[in-house]
Amino acid sequence: MNNVATTATQFVRMAALSLVVVVPLVVTPWGQDAYSRPKVMILYSLVGIMLGGWMILRTSSRRQWNPSTPELALWAFVLVALISSWTTVNPRLTFFGGPGRYEGLLTLLGYVALYFVGVHFFGSKRGVHRLVRLAAIVALPVAAYGVVQLFIPPLFYGEAFTREWYGGLGILRVPSTVGGPVVFGGYLASVIPLLLVLAITSGGVARVVWLTGSCVAIVALALTLTRGAWLAAVLGVIVVAVGVGRLEWRRQLTVSACILAAVVLAAAVLITVVATPGTIGTRVATTVATQSGSVGSRLFIWQRTVDLIRARPLLGWGIETLREIFPYERTSLVRYFGLRPVIIDRAHNDTLQMAVSVGVPGAAAYVAVWLLVIIVGVRLWRRESGADRLLAAGWLGALTGYLVQAQFSFSSVAFTPIIWLLAGAACGWEARPRDDE
After folding, report:
1. How far apart are CA 417 and CA 36, in angstroms?
2. Closest CA to 110 of 413, 321, 430, 314
3. Which residue positions in the chain have pLDDT lower than 50?
4. pLDDT tens digits for range 66-80
5. Coil, helix or strand at residue 189
6. What are the boundaries of each domain within the chain?
7. pTM of the model
8. Buried b (16+ CB within 10 A) or exposed e, 114-127
């Protein structure tokens, strides 16, 4: 590889690593939109830099294209999304995304670009290790700030607005630097498995750091009061436990004891500092209340979204247009959401969101992409051994956490770009022969 190609490769990698660091942390102190807007601007800028560096690399060297397992399904999804954009009911929303979300066509294409950057620039066990470790390092201050928010006043206007907006329960729900508590919970459900695996595979001071980070993240997750994220984190940890194996867990008594202590501490903080046992019990009890509360509102949104999908099943209504086409029937909205104004811009289910946006074929391709990514993770877990096998188990746990929480909430520019980049890196690692590492 010549000097120009080497420089271009390093240029792309540095931009990708910068994205992993900056996107979860960056906020703006001005205005209500303190989280998503600066993050999506960083996303656009860094993806543009990556693509520019990649073009220089392609013109200076004949680097071979490495196909990955989910690629055909991914191209099918992109094709349907592009075609759907020509039939959208609102081109501006479809291309640029709605306020506070910004997951329009440009952002989705940015995610796809990150997947391919992961495949071609981080597609090895070394590349996956590098990304996982960096994502976990960034998760430490993000999780810690979430816990600290319990004891300090808001530091900027957007944080104050978010706390007030989600304070309808009379309980403080922490948002940290990634967004609202729902987004923060989803982020934590995705990174806790990575932190646990790093704690298992490390030694000395590093193990203490990762284990402490895991415990802090568990406490922060409890403080979000996001039940979908709780479920996602539990399932992600179960996947890690199964992947690590019974024999390894017998050697990890310290890790197991710290996890149990963190769960107990989180419960104690919830019922003593955040709220009363009765309040927390009511919050948990409403999980099975299908006619009211957040569960009832989710079912209400899902039912209406399915009706919209039936109306335009082939190409959907357009990306990010749910806020305009959702049937705003005042009586039903008051029943589920109260008297304050509400805009339904998310189906609170990633699969339904895709189906209503780009149609059933596009949603099927999208689901196929993630199913194939899961298959890739399982193949890596079965193929590798030692620390690499445990890393694959951690990635499978993180992916499980992300996908499960997305079926009860939504993706977000705060951490979804990192998942796509990691997915590409894992798929590139799986496509590379073991003797080519």
Report:
1. 12
2. 413
3. 435
4. 789 999 999 999 999
5. helix
6. 3-290+343-436
7. 0.93
8. bbbbbbbbbbbbeb
